[in-house]
Amino acid sequence: MIKITSRTGLAILLTVLCSVSKQLNACSLVPLLEAFEANHTEALAPVKPHFKLAGIERGSDDGNLGSCSDFGFITFKLSGSYPPQGYIFERVKGEFEDRLFEPVAVIPSKFIDDNALFTFVWLDGSSNEQEPIHFTVSIVAVNGAGERSEPQYLEVRHPGVASPWWQFW
Length: 169
Known about the structure:
Blueprint: H1 6-20, E1 33-35, E2 51-57, E3 71-78, E4 86-95, E5 106-108, E6 117-123, E7 133-142, E8 152-158
Antiparallel strand pairs: 1-5, 2-3, 3-6, 4-7, 7-8
């Protein structure tokens, strides 16, 4: 007599589902940002940053539930040359549908070729119709000692994506 435990039953169920499915897709992204590690010995004062909005890519519905098409991306580009420092991004005005920024200093991850690009990701929704975006972000530089610069304020705006004129249902 074979005894089936819940763990064995789960393994059987997963095996059956995987074998029945023609293709299992999963969305994955490389880390785009990482935490800036303060060493608490830095003597250089943090320098106020100069970022520009490099682009906004909205989520969409590509018909594949396992793809990353429903993610939205906001990319800021740092202009100029700066000492080693991280940056804290904070929404200070306006509304946004999701938590976009974490309250820690960040730098581009080792997987990003351009160290001037800071890309933030949110779940924008699996739809070809997206609401407008309009908010203000405060960006503060943080040096290794944890000291902060004066903030830069940057307006983030996107008109949204309307349903095509011919699609009325």
